[in-house]
Amino acid sequence: MAAKLAGPRLVAGALVMANLAEFLIFPNKLSPKERIRVLADQQRAFFGLDADTEAEILAMSYHRMKAPEKGASTYRWLPKMYCDEFFEKGILKLSTIKGFGNDAARESNEGAFVEHLQFSDYERFQVIGLGDDVLALCTTHQPNNKHTGNDACFMINDPSAFHDLITRLLAINFPVIRSEHGKVSYKHSRVISGKSKLNVPQQISSSSIDFAPLAKYFVKPKTFEHEQEYRYCWQVNGCINGQLIQSPHYQQCAHELTKQLTRKTAWN
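^ thats the sequence. predicted structure below, dont judge the formating
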């Protein structure tokens, strides 16, 4: 493996919707060994590096910045009182990606990544925490509640139609910048890597800090693979501070929404 690389480093605190821990730019294309070294160093420093994680990075089999795979029917497990509320009042509660990281029952590094981006004339590495402005709904392909502990669910028969309808509803109160839905990918590391054709300046700015696709919010550690999660994400214009969103407009569209869903009770 190559010797430790010297390169520009910028250490910063909060910036716009991001908590930027480390930012590196290399003006020339790195060799695979050099790239692996930088990624392993950042993973080790900020998230830890066990044997499985190191092997994954060495094999360059970490997450890639590509659209998540789409799927068929999914299940949203939740307490029966909230399931009833959804069908009877049309209220749907969404939380933020960053809020997931503050929930002890969830993966603590939600919204935090080692991002690697390759441009035509430079490579960029950053350790960053995001998600204050990204709303999410987590569902699963599992038709049972063994890993959720909840006693009711609704089945989303058409994920694409469901995603599109919620996007329209959200846009009533929040300008939706971009949205995505698909299967969650499970790896050991927090590394997510990709190439970009965009002309993004090398210097850091509010417009260049977060332009990587929403695919980064569809990655979780291997230890959560049993969840078989299917996720819906919406990036909105403005920090929503982890609050749950309830809109009266959901009730108006409840009939249209429930036509796409199947209500179920718990079974094991």
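The radius of gyration is 20 Å.
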